[in-house]
Design a protein that fits this description.
By secondary structure, the chain is α/β, with parallel strands linked by helices. It is built from 13 helices and eight strands. It has a single domain, classed as Alpha-Beta Barrel (TIM Barrel). The structure holds glyceraldehyde-3-phosphate.
Length: 328
């Protein structure tokens, strides 16, 4: 069985993206061939499959990349504590033992919460090495005053979040105001300090894949450590075609600067089959480095339950009822 390596805790990497000066030239020539993107995305699941022990190994790796998320209006400290317990022990001990994984210290990549839950999560995760990510900047719409959005980042960092998921102003993209988008993301990155910044583009609001590609490049140019598809609150969240466009933008940025930017699809990824498609895409388009939690995260609130069920099926030959995997 392939191994799951313990992730490097992000937030203090010496290889962080320093960004680059704003340049309109970098986005003006971007074009996206919609049918080619859709064709490529649609073949991913069918062309390659991973089975049996390889599938179990890929799913264990996927767990280490999950940003285990709760972002609900009815979140409570109790729910966040239960989520953190699940992040520490994402798979039942008997399943892990059968997989020979008991001693490997498998955890999720992070726990992702609203600002008011950061302290609770930090306390509940103490000593585990699991980072707390805070959604910020007026999540999910990102339309609160700029100074409040900056202060919100600073408050989450002060409360112990080492990863900040910011949301961009989608209006800047829709009106082609690339300089305003650059300035905003750069200001967010400065406010993050040492905390790693994931830039949520809200791709479901951006109308065209060309806009998605341009917004991806601007966010990276302004210093994003990760680019992330969605808040989970748009009517369309992560999709494979959108991901392909963002991943290719990451490749372009790496060609241009040598910097490796992380990728986080988020929203609506709830089955083991979904996540395997994303992993195959990452491996084929960007290579093995992007299967590790320092460059790949999956934002999900309910994916872990299905992965655990599939692992149990692999170990026992039987599927258990959903209620046996109640959290995440
Ligand atoms: O960033 C994470 C998303 O908000 C989670 O979305 P989900 O509830 O559809 O898994």
């Amino acid at each position: 069985m392939a191994t799951v390596s313990k992730f490097k805790t992000p937030g203090h990497g010496e290889d962080r993206n320093p960004g680059m000066p704003f340049s309109l030239d970098a986005v003006e020539d971007i074009h996206v061939n919609l049918s080619a993107v859709e064709r490529r995305a649609s073949t991913l699941g069918g062309r390659r499959t991973v089975k049996k022990e390889y599938q179990a190994a890929w799913l264990l790796k996927a767990i280490s990349c999950i940003d285990l998320t709760t972002l609900s209006g009815d979140d409570t400290a109790g729910r966040v504590k239960r989520l953190c317990a699940k992040a520490r022990q994402p798979v039942r001990p008997d399943i892990l033992e059968a997989l020979g994984m008991s001693e490997r210290g498998l955890t999720t990549g992070a726990v992702c919460v609203y600002h008011t839950m950061v302290e609770t999560a930090v306390e509940a995760l103490a000593g585990s090495g699991i980072p707390v990510a805070a959604v910020s900047t007026g999540f999910p719409a990102g339309l609160t005053p700029l100074d409040l959005r900056l202060r919100e980042i600073e408050a989450s960092v002060a409360a112990g979040a080492t990863e900040i998921d910011i949301v961009i102003t989608r209006g800047h993209v829709l009106t082609g105001n690339w300089k305003a988008l650059y300035d905003e993301v750069k200001a967010f990155r400065e406010a993050c300090g040492d905390a790693h910044m994931k830039a949520i583009l809200g791709t479901g609001d951006l109308v065209t894949l060309r806009n998605v590609a341009k917004a991806s490049i601007i966010a990276m140019m302004a210093g994003a450590d990760f680019i992330k598809t969605s808040t989970g609150k748009e009517s369309v969240n992560a999709t494979l075609p959108v991901s392909l466009v963002m991943i290719r933008a990451i490749r372009d940025y790496q060609d241009r600067t040598g910097c490796k930017i992380g990728y986080k699809p988020a929203g609506g990824i709830s089955t083991a089959k979904d996540v395997l498609n994303y992993q195959i895409m990452m491996k084929e388009e960007l290579g093995l480095d992007w299967l590790q939690p320092d460059l790949f995260r999956i934002g999900a609130s309910s994916l872990l339950g299905d992965i655990e069920r599939q692992l149990e099926h692999y170990v026992t030959g039987r599927y258990s009822a959903d209620f046996r995997h109640p959290m995440a």
